[in-house]
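User: I've been trying to design a sequence by hand for this structure and keep getting stuck. Would you show me what you'd pick, starting by listing the structure so we're on the same page?

Assistant: Good idea, let's start from the same input. This is the structure you sent:
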């Protein structure tokens, strides 16, 4: 009887965690024609972000780990997303590509951007592009991505810009990349931290150079957070969003400003 009670308690706790993850998606006001939403998903393991406009178009940046598939599907369903125009892959490891085939099969994807080292076979109907260094690609009107760096393993760091707003997707956890990025970037509004906050980058010098207002750290079941990195972020007065704690984070972008729409925007 005691074992049964413990088992039922464990199942109930897992259910609560799942419900919390899905219900963490707040009711979002309707998008205006000059606005975009970027959504950083809280999933059990890995990275996945969604960009959406008022025309019902969607861009997915990475697909998280396969163990996050159910949670990701539920969050997308609540957002009424059943079609994705473009998938952007920045890292070929499972934490970023685990659900790639699932999305290609179920979400009518038209375009995909992948690292040069990635040698997957895709349908002939899919428009496949590989990252080109130091290039700028316009995804939608006034929304562009600028490729900044690629590691020897194929990890891509890029800058996303919309009007005056910019988001740095940092995907190299070592500080060696930073000198190159300092020459390519100035102020950044939002920083997506590399490697689930487990690395040494961003350094103090780099943080002071890009001067972001907020940073995003995706959850991982395998990477240990570098506490000295978190101390640097906090000491620089940057709001730190651990998605495992804050839940899914919505950022509404206009061309001149942004607003954070999330269930718990005070976690840092």
């Amino acid at each position: 009887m005691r074992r049964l009670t413990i088992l039922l308690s464990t199942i109930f706790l897992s259910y609560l965690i799942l419900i919390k993850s899905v219900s963490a998606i707040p009711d979002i006001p309707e998008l205006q024609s000059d606005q975009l939403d970027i959504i950083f998903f809280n999933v059990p393991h890995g990275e996945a972000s969604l960009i959406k406009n008022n025309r019902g178009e969607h861009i997915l940046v990475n697909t998280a780990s396969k163990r996050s598939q159910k949670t990701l599907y539920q969050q997308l369903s609540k957002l009424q997303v059943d079609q994705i125009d473009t998938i952007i892959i920045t890292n070929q490891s499972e934490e970023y590509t685990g659900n790639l085939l699932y999305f290609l099969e179920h979400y009518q994807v038209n375009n995909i951007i992948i690292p040069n080292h990635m040698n997957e076979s895709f349908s002939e109907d899919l428009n496949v592009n590989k990252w080109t260094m130091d290039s700028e690609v316009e995804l939608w009107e006034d929304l562009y991505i600028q490729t900044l760096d690629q590691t020897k393993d194929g990890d891509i760091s890029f800058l996303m810009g919309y009007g005056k707003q910019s988001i740095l997707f940092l995907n190299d956890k070592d500080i060696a990349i930073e000198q190159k990025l300092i020459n390519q970037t100035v102020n950044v509004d939002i920083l997506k931290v590399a490697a689930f906050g487990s690395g040494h980058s961003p350094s103090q010098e780099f943080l002071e150079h890009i001067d972001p207002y907020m940073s995003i750290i995706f959850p991982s079941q395998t990477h240990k957070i570098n506490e000295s990195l978190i101390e640097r972020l906090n000491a620089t007065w940057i709001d730190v969003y651990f998605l495992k704690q804050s839940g899914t984070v919505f950022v509404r972008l206009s061309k001149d400003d942004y607003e954070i729409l999330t269930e718990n925007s005070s976690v840092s």
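That's my pick for every position. To get oriented when you compare it with your attempt: Residues 1-23 have pLDDT under 50 and may be disordered. The chain has one domain: 36-261.
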